[in-house]
Please model this.
Amino acid sequence: MLLANATPASAVTLWTKGFRPTGDVDGAGQIVREGLLGVGCERGNRLTIELTLTQGDAVGSATREFQCDGEPRDAVMVIHATTGLFEEGRAQVEATATERDKDGNVIDTVHKTPTITLQD
Model:
């Protein structure tokens, strides 16, 4: 049972550090590789990260799922442009990480909206 305003134990490791401040643009602006820092959750759970990247008219999204081993680790998300092309400069990330237990029940959700810099 959680008390009001309490944080589940898994939230201590759930996506502890967030995003790398720069993302790499590849494929003539069609692909961005963005690093996630300290991705993790409770051993045996699954973590799904859904991400949308916006820069002017360019928009792309990606989803990645992790099987958790209890240890935070860095990872990369590959974002494909669905409209427009990405270029060097600032871009807005909107991401949600959802941790589920082995039965699929939601344990924790974290939403982040950092601004990052895209580089070639």
Remarks:
- The two ends are 48 Å apart (CA to CA).
- The beta strands are 18-26, 31-39, 46-55, 58-67, 73-83, 89-100, 106-112, 115-119.
- Residues 1-13 have pLDDT under 50 and may be disordered.
